[in-house]
Queue: 2 jobs
Job 1
Amino acid sequence: MMNRPIIALDFSTMTEVGEFLGKFDEALFVKVGMELYLQNGPAVIREIRAMGHDIFLDLKLHDIPNTVGKAMAGLGALDVQMTNVHAQGGVSMMKRAAESFKDHNPDGVLIAVTQLTSTSEEMMQQEQKSILTLDESVIHYAQLAKNSGLDGVVSSPLESQLIHEHCGDDFLTVTPGIRLNEDSKDDQVRVVTPAGANALGSDHIVVGRSITKASDPAAQYRRVKEEWESGEE
Ligand SMILES: O=C(O)c1cc(=O)[nH]c(=O)n1[C@@H]1O[C@H](COP(=O)(O)O)[C@@H](O)[C@H]1O
């Protein structure tokens, strides 16, 4: 069974979230990111959980180990199924994050962002002054995350196969940057279709605007899910 596509609830208010979720009659896996969480706080988690949906809380923590460890204790106490940090925060930070999160939420999944899907290889080399290729950098961060006790990473589906080759099939690849063929890329760079993500071996896809901005979001979700599960566009 394929994992359900994760819908990114990139809204500012709970009113918008309620309107959006009201269009669905099934239990979803949704992502609460900075836009929603920073403006509404932990109450959004309780409300969305009460509606029966699973939650990926995406705050991409990136700070010194002590600060992230303490913050993760707070996030671990929330009833979320998945959360994340930035692998660029380093091994000590990721280890502290994992210990702290799992202490409070043993079944929760902790993953690390490798290179954002809005980053191209050229940007990475010019802005981060990286001497690696994008693939090498993603593999490197995935290996650090694995050695730090995390369950997987966030990357583009373009790197899912390589990550599994280097970190094993059980190491999760959670992949945003998903677009249907006719969609615009918006601010994303490394984009793939749901069928493409399936072919490349992603474990989860994260889909925002392709669904949230569609005229019929529930129908669009079914289309994304069907394409993701069948591997056919
Ligand atoms: O951690 C994430 O979820 C994330 C990492 C990344 O590299 N790229 C990325 O797009 N995301 C998130 O995935 C979602 C993608 O949204 P759409 O581009 O609208 O599908 C957004 O909520 C982003 O914050």
Job 2
Amino acid sequence: MSNDVAKHEKTPLLSIRGLTKSFGQIKAVDNVSLDVFPGEVVGLIGDNGAGKSTFLSLLSGYNKKDRGDFYYKGEKVSFSSPRTSRRNLKIEMVYQNLSLAPDLAVWQNAFLGEEVRRFGVFLNAPKMIEKTARVLKTLNSKVRPTDQVGALSGGEQQLVAISRALLFSRDLIIMDEPTAAISVSKIADVLKLIKDLKADGKSIILVSHRLEDILTVADRIVVFAHGKIRDILVNQNLSIEDLVRVMFQDRSVKKGES
Ligand SMILES: Nc1ncnc2c1ncn2[C@@H]1O[C@H](COP(=O)(O)OP(=O)(O)OP(=O)(O)O)[C@@H](O)[C@H]1O
């Protein structure tokens, strides 16, 4: 069911239809259609250069699509900027490089660009610190709102990025390689967090090269190849070998032919 849409009883949170983006001659994302349902974790995998990051950048509004339509809760929408994605559509993006400001405190990062103000002018620091503390507690984190982000571990920084999704009650959280920069001992924490977010009804799109992480948390696994969806797999009784086989099937075919 390549480039297909799963049969589902619920209305999709996000429907993507015919999404296309080229860079010069390269079709980075080529006519991709996908539904993401409420409370679902969608794993996105594929070889280097398959188009995963470009696909995410179109959802978050960082790159402009050439073609295609988005429907959010059944209504046609545009993803014109990261701000629109966040504010209007309640989509939060947690990046590979995190895009946090290392010199600022945890609470300042958590509210970056969406500061709480008194009378619309003065920053309401106590309120933001208190809200950040509450979210960090929910995440079972020892990090304090006043800690400087640059002094935190990779895993803790990941938590700060994710805390934004909780602070602003995002519906969809897009994660690009959330376990790439953190120690093995912390990976289980991030995966548990993803499961908790799902249990809380959030939808998650997760890109990862760590196939074992994808198998641990994903409900469905979307395999990208050459800018297209090669396959969508329901995560039942799948092994890493199964995923590798689908990801690299063109290579094995070529090998067999030569
Ligand atoms: N800004 C850009 N300018 C030109 N080409 C780009 C740009 N961004 C991506 N590409 C090209 O688009 C294709 C898809 O790249 P993309 O980064 O989306 O793949 P990916 O699946 O995320 O790869 P990786 O797993 O290595 O991060 C590649 O051929 C890449 O070289």
